[in-house]
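Session log. Operator J.P. requested a structure for one protein chain; no other inputs attached. Running the standard single-chain path with C-alpha cell output.
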Amino acid sequence: MSDANGFEEGASGSQGDPRVLIAMNVVLSTAFAATIVWGLSVIGAAELTAINVATGAILLFALTYAITLQ
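Structure written below.
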C-alpha cells in the first residue's frame, strides 16, 4: 500500500518536461491536420498539399497551446 501512495505523491508533484508536451502537440496537430485536409480533399473542398496541412497544423497547435495555458 505504501508503494501506491509514493507513486501518487510523485505523480501529483511532477510538472513534466514542457519540451515533450510541445513535441507531442506538434506531432498530433500535424497528424490531425493531415486527416482533416485529406477529408476535405475527398469531398472536393480543399486540395491536399503540404501548405494546407502545415497551415492547419499551425492553427491547431496555436489553438491547443492557447487553451492549455489557461
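Operator note: The longest helix spans residues 18-42.
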